[in-house]
Amino acid sequence: MSLDDHTPSIGILANPAAGRDIRRLVAQASVFPIAEKRNMITRLFSSLGRLDIGTVYMMPDGNGIADRIRHALETPPPTGQTWPRIEFLDMPIEDRAVDTLVAVDKMAALGVGGIIVLGGDGTHRLVASRAGDIPITALSTGTNNVFPAMREATIAGLAAGLVATGQVPVAEGSVRNKVLRVDINGVQSDLALVDLCTSTALWIGSRALWKADGLDQLFLSFAEADAIGLSSIGGLIRPLARSAQNGLRLNLAEPDNAPMVVTAPLAPGLLVDIGIEDVQELRPGETIPLRATSGVVALDGEREIEFSARENLAVHLEWDGPLTLDIPRVMAYVAENKLLTRMNQASGHAKRANQ
Amino acid sequence: MQLSKDDLLKAYRMMKTIREFEERLHVEFATGEIPGFVHLYAGEEASATGFCMHLDERDKIASNHRGHGHSIGKGCDVHAMMAEIYGRGTGLCGGKGGSMHIADLSKGMMGANGIVGGGPPLICGAGLAAKKLKTKGVAIAFFGDGASNQGTTMESLNLASVWNLPCVFVCENNGYAEATSSKYSVSCDDAADRASAFNMPGVVVDGHDFFAVHEAAGEAINRAREGKGPTLIECKLNRYYGHFEGDAQTYRGKDEVKNLRATIDCLDQFRAKVTSASLLDDAELNAIDSDVAELIDDAVEKAKAAPMPAAAELLTDVYISY
């Protein structure tokens, strides 16, 4: 709820660190400036302000987004716009992933009716790990993402606001997502929204996974043929919709030793030959032990977990992932129910029709 | 890139040598025996080591006022460096340069530099020479967030791009230009963002993680060696001491450095990773610790005992003939 305790509220979480990783060096990944994230956020404000959203809660940061928003708030909104009240969460800033987790927890405690996320697959993965049943509006800030889409923030803001205010029922406008969960020694550890890949690389290092060398097993919650990144490997062999019941699991090999080779776009501008040993569907609840005894696990394209022979890792697919807004479906509902349409009784047409 | 056991041992020894060198200088400077200023690199070791591990005799580096780590990384003699800082005749530059002018051209170390933003133009020259002579050499400039705002740095980024030079620009962003926060003084979000304006890749890397730096550095250096042009890499890191020794650091949080040492120290991270992966054990790392402690003890002892430069040498080494 908002500060006035009766109007709906929404959280906005923008990752200030997204878009500066090594893929700018080893591939031609896009650079998404903070200035554009700030512009997207103010466009969200313009939509949310029209929909009786009382308060927008935002994650503070030390990298510039919060400062730019505060600066924007020092002057009146553009003519014709009314912005909601903007509150930055009271929380410590570490400029690390933990900030996102803390912010989502705080937004949940404040009872927000939705969280709008600006970031890549990694940011959405973090939000998904804590958001529970709060609907997420997923907005991509870069060209290297699969889970969030590149969308105009004005429309995303309308959709998020209409759901948060109850004008569009959550059930009408949202979908449940699958997740891939990794257990370490039998204890649930982390999750991936799209792809979970093991590599014989020893270090997390610069995080991104962009080389075929050492890729061992790949688990996918869905696989689209036109995707970028690791999920494209599955997408080009056996496409699988987000809504499909199962996921995929692939055993990978050196291209020279593999019965099948797929040329996959692992990053923008980077096409890599990947050897495939076999591909199988992954059923929900089915637990697959990792075959490597040491290496790293990449979650949604980024190396996150280093493991050795001391740890037993296993992966399973579950249907308990985040609830995300299906923006085209929300807006179709809006059109069908004329939620943004009104008759103008004062117009000449209306007067004539009433005579 | 997988590192061999020898590589890992070398990397740890390099980082540990830099750390001990700086920690000892912190103690020794307080005695008043060291002339001039020293700017300590403690906390930033993963950056110099992550880059210098990829370099060989073909390559050149240009450093800045905080240059001890880069010098050790490029192979400068530790005894001669210590003597130089003590202003002794046995120093790398005859004891007449001091901390901020340590140089050893025979090692490809083109000099620490008292001029903020002085290093980037130098590597354009070194890079142009390597390109023209077809040595496959690479030139690297280490500079800070303050220097990232200097015109010389912008001009160098531009020139390196226009001439497609084998250069790597390493912005070691430790959060403060002297006492001014980079969040205030750097107009863009990350210094690496400036790369796109000069038509080159710009990457941010965790400068506390040797493996992250080493990986990104390897890609950028190979790219330069293969004639594919310059790169700007921003290492986000922290220094454990003030801008200079004696800096009261009133601009830093009360427990800022204590927390950094406890949570993200590059040497601690390195030890934890390699022992956890069973690639090295504590005994091997402890043996390096002992070696390095002896080395630094010996370097300080010999530096203190070494003679001052002779008065007759006052005007030598001022100019050089080509």
Structure explained in plain terms:
The complex is a heterodimer of chains A (355) and B (322). Chain A is of the alpha+beta class and 355 residues long. Chain A is 26% helix and 28% strand. Chain A contains ten helices and 18 strands. Chain A has helices spanning 23-26, 34-49, 65-73, 97-109, 121-131, 153-164, 170-173, 231-235, 327-336, 348-354; strands spanning 9-14, 55-58, 85-88, 115-119, 136-140, 174-176, 179-184, 187-192, 195-199, 215-220, 247-253, 260-267, 270-282, 287-289, 295-299, 302-307, 313-318, 323-325. Chain A has a seven-stranded antiparallel sheet with strand order 12-13-11-10-9-15-16. In chain A, a hairpin with a 2-residue loop joins strand 7 and strand 8 (187-192). Chain B is an alpha/beta fold. Chain B has one domain (5-306): 3-Layer(aba) Sandwich (Rossmann fold). Chain B is 43% helix and 10% strand. Chain B is built from eleven helices and seven strands. In chain B, strands 1-2-3-7-6 form a five-stranded parallel sheet, with helices on both faces. In chain B, helix 1 (5-29) runs antiparallel to helix 10, helix 4 packs across helix 11 (282-305) and helix 5 (119-133) runs parallel beside helix 6 (151-162). Chain B is globular and about 50 Å long. Chain A binds chain B through residues 16-17, 20-22, 24-26, 31, 33-35, 62-64, 201-207, 294, 306, 308-309, and chain B through 2, 183, 188-190, 192-193, 195-196, 201-205, 209, 211-212, 214-216, 219-220, 223, 231, 233-234, 273, 276-279.
